[in-house]
Automatic annotation (TrEMBL), chain A:
Enzyme class: oxidoreductase
Pfam family membership, one: Fer2_2
2Fe-2S ferredoxin-type domain residues: 5-81
EC number of the protein: 1.17.2.1
GO molecular function: oxidoreductase activity
Identification of the protein by name: Nicotinate dehydrogenase subunit A
UniProt cross-references to InterPro entries, sorted A to Z: 2Fe-2S-bd, 2Fe-2S-bd_dom_sf, 2Fe-2S_ferredoxin-like_sf, 2Fe-2S_ferredoxin-type, 2Fe2S_fd_BS, Beta-grasp_dom_sf, Diverse_Oxidoreductases
Domain of life of the source: Bacteria
Keywords from the named record: 2Fe-2S, Iron, Iron-sulfur, Metal-binding, Oxidoreductase
Automatic annotation (TrEMBL), chain B:
Enzyme class, first EC level, given as a word: oxidoreductase
Lineage of producing organism: Bacteria, Pseudomonadati, Pseudomonadota, Alphaproteobacteria, Hyphomicrobiales
Transmembrane segments: 756-779
GO molecular function: oxidoreductase activity
The protein's name in its UniProt record: Nicotinate dehydrogenase subunit B
Keywords: Heme, Iron, Membrane, Metal-binding, Oxidoreductase, Transmembrane, Transmembrane helix
Record-linked InterPro entries: Ald_Oxase/Xan_DH_a/b (IPR000674), Ald_Oxase/Xan_DH_a/b_sf (IPR036856), AldOxase/xan_DH_MoCoBD1 (IPR008274), AldOxase/xan_DH_MoCoBD2 (IPR046867), AldOxase/xan_DH_Mopterin-bd_sf (IPR037165), Cyt_c-like_dom (IPR009056), Cyt_c-like_dom_sf (IPR036909), N-heterocyclic_Hydroxylase (IPR052516)
Sequence ranges assigned to domain Cytochrome c in this UniProt record: 797-900, 942-1050, 1075-1159
Pfam families: Cytochrom_C, Cytochrome_CBB3, MoCoBD_1, MoCoBD_2
Organism: Kaistia dalseonensis
EC number(s) recorded for this UniProt protein: 1.17.2.1
Protein's UniProt keywords contain Transmembrane helix: yes
């Protein structure tokens, strides 16, 4: 059961096969095998949120998701959200509000916020604070992050209503 | 795999100095340096003919945005656009040695050469242009990198064109005039940080993301004296490393041992994690010097070296005659940097030298350490500095770089070392605890007659760990002189004495944001508040009466006004009839950093508002108005952001943060539950007031706003409650104790020693069994071996049916060793009677069952006999298998015979006497094995009967879920499925005897067997997890049948009753019913709640079940809860991380006590938790 085997992963719309032990945390496969650096190792215990990715549309802490349980599911990382030239509105809002100091927690903040806004396009500030309750930031960028999520929500609603 | 370019896009000093088409501002590294030798020159600034500007600074960006601010300074002096400037920071091969990045002095001090270099380059460009264009210099200006004439609008010459084919090296001229501030167009304006776009798209490269060709993955194994770096045992405690203990881990390249330094290197990261965890290491006992259970006592007992820093007037005489004398003691706890990313580094040791990629704060001093550690000349070591997770002083960045260097040397290949969360928490040099005694007195008319201030500070600046662990430097404690920051108060005390008692470290300690100034100002600014009340004055007015520094006074006035400060004398709480009471507090200070008397940096003032819950003891900082005079601001947005960060982080430190220690004084906080930090729900509203001082020198913004935090908050709590706290943090327990509500520390539960009654009864058992021996039946006859059957003779459908039966019987679960081939046996199964080793059931002829005929197989399945006639132990559940249909057994035989044959000899089973006498089993069989198939119960449905066949036959559920008698046989009747044990786990009752708060329904059982999860019961864990995984092979109707049958043992409950009971449990176990005001609650909140509390926090795809319904938390014994937390849960039904390495036994007991209390409030608390945990964990070896 512990032997390595090919793991089929679907990440950012692309299919990958990685040879690994099925119980390996998804985080390490994303980082080391697929070179997707955005999910960060922070605690390995699901406490801090730095490793957050989105699986089947819902936030997931990739340090406590085994590779086996991620198989066959749709995984999105920060890289898959948008690029510098084509930013996702949440990313654009984080730049607009300058919502980073060291930025190590940023991946988790953006991915958790994205999952929230997909579920609830119009959250109030209390809902955002609650959603990010277990995403830890040590530099104290919380104020800018909250603003960024509010800004992103507004822009996404405007974008949705402007769409034909 | 894609690799990080060795030097990424960073400009390279040596290449720039060797090429043409440049204007470079250089400086000789030493006065004797040869100006033609690139290695002898520091490069500050280089402009190229392509129009690029490269600027070099020896400091590093710790996440504060200095990369952007420095680029602004260069762009300003050069008159180029900021986005043409590329900064190279802190890198030994590239940038000048400007010492460590500390004390927020990058802008204040180390930006100066860069500013001058840029000014010098601008002047030189103007000169070159004047020559080329034949115009007077003062007619020319540079705008956005283009030389223009003031008179002739047609002239527009990009500066790069002036540098074509030239190689201009200018020595830095410190006398170069710089721009007048009035002309600034870039500095002083808010600009966006240059790094943020890359950070929000995941393309920014942190040191954690560095990959170089051929790189391996390393992990270190640290000694048990966690966080202690002084004492004879440091570097000398390793007894033995058992390298064979990781023989089963794939991909191990090397184990490197040197002194107390141990590291493993593997091909893959997860392999290194497993190897480090599995490596068996024996350590000698060690004894720590001090008891940190009580910080004040520990600091008072420690020997000191004292420095009298200030002694003006006659303090003793003034205190002796004073009418209002106050004697106060302030205690500051050990605190952590708590970088969100544990430190990481890559090292590449080659015969010609060492190259490291590091997140260090101090590239040059670290290089000196590496040279000492590796016995290499400094010139042969290159430190490439790459950004890391934010640190606020000295964390483990240097330690991990040295670790990587040692491991790379051990394997001769590049090695990446990532510290674990636990290692970073345990070993990061802590912000030192501090103990401050103040005596002071008022004079006549509210004058400040006397102030006698003594502060104790234990630190050695934390030498790089590998130097100590390998014995390269002595672990004799060195005493750092760092307790003196901001030790002189800001007020006009007539007689004043300031003494610093420096002392050796107790645990590893160095500098953390606001080093010693934050604690010192906590004392100064708490004390002045008390004096104000003694004098009958408003605290702000009293400060203004006694401040001597006009800028401090101006900031104090402005901040108080912005906050709408209402003058008051003594506490003036705002109450609204609820348990919440509110108050406001003020504090201010100018941060003085550096060696005494130090360098004065920015002024900061706080007006804090708090809400104190008198019932729970929780303190919330609701609003902070923070004023700052930071001199000139290069990037005002960056300064504001730094102030926000300082306010939030320091509020967290004051309210929540305190390192905890084990009974041996080793650090015990290993994860965020043990060291909680402030998060989004508790965020204060922050209103920043920045003084306009653009014509004053810049003073840095990285730390000052933290400094007044503690006193402002404590003064506000005093205003709210009339109780003054002089020890931090303001945890609910401390506040309640201060309010006289509760004793601060609940007495530790009395310890009882208990022997396992379990073993007591065995003697009698043995006697009974000996009776059997006398009548033991002879060994049964062997069934002759056959040639291995040809698997092609079985139909695909038969093999498929056999596969399903093998899954139902979960054959592979027991007959596969960890990491071994399926069905090849070798799993050790612990029973009360000894260890049974599972056997090879692959069709290998010599070691497996390849030469077993079907009759031999059937006899084994029904009677528990080996082909050769030996008795098999009933750990093999043949009494259940005996009930299987012949057709199913034949299919199972066909399936096993069609598997790959694996040659693997069976390991001997180790039974204790008398159970090692196999023939005794025959007697056992006489008593307990009743072969024969199951008669259908016609009163029951077809599904029920099918379910019974599956459950009692190959499914062998009762083998674990029924209790066993003294001889290890399943009890029947009312005991059937009434709960048993499996591999040390409790297999819960599946009948009305279940402890589950909500009875099992058919739907719940179905969901659980199908998915491993049940909303109302929990997740399959321990030995049940692989069983559920195996059951995936069963068709849905079989799972339904099993559910029908199993549900028939519990009284049915109507769906609406289930729902109302569930709702009741949810409400009764909600967080509001159990406010987080204990250590156990904090472990839960930091470690468990993120996954286990839907609705509090993000919705997660991998959320854990709600614990109020968890059967295990309602059970009579805590074993399953302990096992799940210690070892985690692995399985397709979900993963729970193992907390065994993150929590010690005492912490786990605190957590589990809280879990039981909160989630099973009507159950009695579990006794002897710590002992049970220790037994289950087994001694750490």
């Amino acid at each position: 059961m512990r032997a390595a085997r090919p793991i089929q992963l679907r990440v950012n719309g692309q299919a990958h096969v990685v040879e690994a032990e099925p119980r390996t945390p998804l985080l390490f496969l994303l980082r080391n095998d697929l070179c997707l650096n955005s999910p960060k190792y922070g605690c390995g215990l699901g406490e801090c949120g730095a490793c957050t990715v989105i699986i089947d549309g819902i936030a997931a802490r990739s340090c406590v998701v085994s590779a086996a349980s991620a198989e066959g599911r749709e995984i999105v990382t920060l890289e898959g959200l948008g690029t510098i030239d084509h930013l996702h509105p949440v990313q654009a809002a984080f730049i607009e509000e300058q919502a980073a100091q060291c930025g190590y927690c940023l991946n988790g903040m953006i991915m958790t916020a994205k999952a929230l806004l997909d579920r609830d396009p119009d959250p109030d500030e209390a809902s955002i604070r609650n959603e990010l309750r277990f995403n830890l930031c040590r530099c104290g960028t919380h104020i800018e992050i909250l603003r960024a999520v509010m800004t992103a929500a507004r822009r996404m609603r405007e974008g949705a209503s402007a769409a034909p | 795999m894609t690799e990080t370019p060795t030097r990424m896009e960073t400009p390279y000093r040596r290449a720039l100095l060797q090429r043409s088409g440049v204007l470079a501002i250089v400086e000789r590294r030493t006065s004797a340096a040869d100006a033609l030798d690139p290695d002898a020159l520091d490069l500050h600034l280089c402009l190229t003919e392509e129009g690029a500007v490269y600027a070099f600074n020896g400091h590093v960006d710790l996440g504060t945005g200095i990369r952007t601010a420095l680029a602004q300074i260069v762009a300003e002096e050069l008159d180029v656009a900021i986005d043409t400037v590329t900064m190279a920071l802190g890198d030994t091969d590239n940038t000048p040695d400007q010492g460590p990045t500390i004390a927020s002095e990058t802008i204040q001090i180390s930006a100066r050469p860069l500013r001058i270099a840029a000014a010098q380059a601008r002047l030189h460009l103007l000169g070159l242009a004047a020559d080329m264009l034949d115009r007077p210099t003062d007619d020319l200006v540079i705008r956005d990198g283009i030389l223009r004439s003031r008179e002739d609008a047609r002239i527009a010459l990009p500066f790069g064109e002036l540098l074509q084919n030239r190689q201009i090296h200018l020595l830095l001229d410190p006398e170069t005039p710089v721009k007048d501030v009035a002309d600034y167009r870039i500095v002083g304006r808010s600009v966006g940080r240059v790094d943020i776009p890359d950070k929000v798209t995941g393309s920014f490269v942190y040191v954690h993301d560095v990959r170089v060709p051929g790189m391996l993955h390393g992990r270190v194994v640290r000694p048990p004296y966690s966080g202690i770096d002084a004492g004879d045992f440091v570097g000398r405690s390793l007894e033995e490393v058992d390298k064979a203990s990781i023989a089963h881990v794939p991909g191990v390249v090397a184990v490197v041992v040197q002194g107390d330094f141990i590291g493993v290197v593997c091909e893959r990261e997860e392999q290194a994690i497993e190897a480090a965890a599995a490596l068996k290491v024996t350590w000698k006992p060690w004894v720590a010097g001090a008891d940190l259970g009580h910080v004040e006592n520990a600091l008072r007992a420690q020997p000191v070296q004292s420095r009298r820093l200030v002694d003006e007037g006659d303090v003793d005489a003034a205190l002796a005659i004073a009418g209002h004398r106050l004697d106060r003691t302030y205690v500051w706890p050990y605190q952590m940097h708590g970088s969100i990313g544990p430190s990481c580094a890559v090292a590449d040791f080659q015969p010609n030298g060492l190259r490291v990629w590091s997140g260090t704060q101090n590239p040059y001093p670290m290089r000196t350490d590496l040279a000492l550690l590796m016995g290499l000349a400094e010139e042969r070591i290159e430190v490439i500095r790459i950004e890391a997770a934010g640190c606020y002083g000295r964390n483990c960045a240097d330690d991990v770089t040295a670790d990587a260097a040692l491991l790379s040397r051990g394997v001769g290949r590049p090695v990446r070392v990532q510290l674990t969360r636990e290692q970073e928490h345990l070993w990061e040099p802590k912000g030192a605890a501090q103990l401050i005694d103040v005596s002071g007195a008022l004079g006549p008319g509210g004058s400040l007659a006397a102030y006698d201030f003594e502060t104790r500070y234990p630190s050695n600046l934390a030498p790089t760990l590998a130097l100590l662990l390998t014995g390269a430097v002595s672990p004799r404690p060195f005493i750092a002189q760092m307790g003196d920051r901001t030790s002189r108060p800001a007020y006009d005390y007539e007689n004043i004495r300031v003494t610093v008692h420096d002392m050796a470290p107790i645990v590893r300690a160095s500098w953390l944001r606001g080093v010693s100034a934050m604690p010192n100002v906590f004392a100064h600014e708490s004390f002045i508040d008390e004096l104000a009340e003694e004098a009958g004055a408003d605290p702000v007015a009293f400060r203004l009466d006694h401040l001597t520094d006009p800028r401090a006074a101006e900031l104090t006035r402005a901040t108080a006004e912005r906050a709408g400060w209402t003058p008051r004398v003594g506490p003036a709480p705002q109450e609204d009839g609820t348990e919440i009471v509110r108050g406001r507090g003020f504090a201010q200070a100018r941060y003085v950093h550096g060696k005494w008397p130090g360098t004065a940096a920015a002024w900061s003032a706080w007006a804090a508002e708090v809400a104190v819950n008198r019932v729970t003891g929780e303190v919330n900082v609701t609003r902070v108005v923070v004023g700052q005079d930071t001199g000139m601001m290069v990037n005002p947005a960056g300064v504001r952001h730094q102030i926000h960060g300082n306010v939030i982080q320091s509020t967290s430190r004051v309210l929540k943060e305190e390192v905890s220690f084990s009974e041996t004084t080793a650090v015990a906080s290993r994860e965020w539950g043990a060291y909680p930090i402030l998060g989004f729900p508790d965020l204060p509203s922050v209103d920043v007031l920045m003084m306009d001082r653009q014509y004053e020198p810049p003073l840095g913004a990285g730390e000052s706003a933290s400094v007044p935090s503690a006193a402002a908050i404590v003064n506000a709590v005093y205003d709210a409650t009339g109780v003054r706290f002089r020890e931090l943090p303001l945890t609910p327990e401390r506040v309640l104790a201060g309010l006289g509500r509760l004793p601060q520390k609940t007495a530790a539960p009395a310890r009882k020693r208990r022997r396992f009654a379990f073993f007591g009864g065995l003697g009698a058992l043995a006697v009974g069994l000996a009776g059997f021996a006398a009548m033991a039946l002879p060994i049964r006859a062997a069934i002759p071996p056959i040639a291995r059957p040809d698997p092609t003779t079985y139909s695909a459908s038969t093999i498929e049916r056999g596969r399903v039966m093998a899954s139902l019987g979960a054959c592979a679960v027991c007959h596969t060793a960890p990491g071994g081939a399926a069905y090849a046996g070798g799993l050790a199964i612990e029973t009360p009677f000894g260890t049974v080793m599972s056997t090879n059931i692959t069709p290998d002829v010599s070691t497996g069952i390849g030469n077993w005929s079907y009759p031999a197989f059937e006899r084994a399945m029904r009677e528990g006999l080996h082909r050769d006639g030996r008795h098999l132990y009933p750990a093999f559940p043949y009494p259940n298998f005996a009930k299987a249909d012949e057709a199913d057994l034949q299919a199972l035989y066909a399936f096993l015979m069609s598997q790959t044959a694996v040659a693997k000899a069976n390991a001997p089973t180790r039974m204790t006497f008398p159970f090692n006498i196999r023939p005794l089993v025959a007697g056992w069989n006489l008593l307990f094995n009743r072969p024969g198939t199951i008669e259908a119960d016609t009163a029951q449905s077809e599904a029920w009967n099918r379910g019974r066949y599956l459950v009692d036959g190959l499914g062998h559920c009762s083998a674990c879920h029924s209790p066993r008698n003294a001889l290890g046989a399943e009890k029947t009747g009312a005991s059937y499925l009434a709960g048993g044990v499996a591999e040390g786990w409790e297999a819960p009752a599946l009948t009305n005897l279940s402890h589950a708060p909500i009875p099992w329904t058919e739907a719940d059982i179905y969901r659980y067997l199908r998915t491993g999860k049940s909303l109302h019961h929990g997740t399959a864990a321990g030995p049940m997890a692989p069983v559920v995984a195996e059951l995936r092979a069963l068709p849905d109707e079989d799972i339904r049948a099993m559910s029908v049958y199993l549900a028939s043992f519990s009284d049915p409950m109507a769906l609406d009753e289930v729902e109302s009971r569930a709702a009741h449990i949810s409400a009764a176990t909600s967080v509001s019913a159990a406010p987080p005001s204990s250590t156990g609650a904090r472990f839960y909140d930091g470690g468990c709640a993120s996954c286990h509390e839907a609705g509090r926090g993000a919705i997660l795809v991998n959320a854990g079940p709600a614990l109020g319904f968890n059967t295990n938390l309602h059970a009579a014994k805590p074993d399953n809860v302990i096992r799940a937390i210690l070892g985690g849960i692995e399985g397709h039904s979900g993963t729970m991380p193992a907390f065994g390495a993150a929590l010690d036994n005492r912490q786990l007991a605190d957590l589990i006590r809280y879990l039981r209390q909160r989630f099973a409030p009507d159950r009695a608390s579990w006794q002897d938790l710590e002992e049970t945990i220790a037994r289950i964990r087994k001694p750490a070896t």
